[in-house]
Amino acid sequence: MKWAKIAKCSKDTAIRDINDLINKDVLQKEPAGGRSTNYELKK
């Protein structure tokens, strides 16, 4: 997971970070999901 490497944290912590930002309406998943899910800033 790229975010885990960038933030130098565990994959579990990275997932919690991403989910927190989604819940705060900061990030959203890009339409093409799957194994290579990408996220974008919400407008």
Description:
The structure is a single chain. The protein is of the alpha+beta class and 43 residues long. The chain has a domain at 2-30. Helix content is 44%, strand content 14%. The chain has helices at 2-7, 11-23; strands at residues 27-29, 39-41.
General shape: globular
Which percent bin holds the helix content?
40-55%
Q: Give the H and E element order.
A: HHEE
Catalogue the unreliable spans.
none
The total of beta strands comes to 2
End-to-end gap: 24 Å
Gyration radius from CA atoms, angstroms: 10 Å
Mean model confidence by pLDDT:
92
**Which class do the helix and strand fractions yield?**
alpha+beta
Query: Strand order, biggest sheet?
Result: 1-2
Proportion in β-strands: 5-15%
Tally of helical runs: 2
The major beta sheet can be summarized as: 2 strands, antiparallel
Summed up:
InterPro entries: WH-like_DNA-bd_sf. This protein has 43 residues and is an alpha+beta fold.
What is the fold's blueprint, element by element?
Blueprint: H1 2-7, H2 11-23, E1 27-29, E2 39-41
Antiparallel strand pairs: 1-2
Q: What structural keywords apply?
A:
43 residues, alpha+beta, two-stranded antiparallel sheet, 2 strands
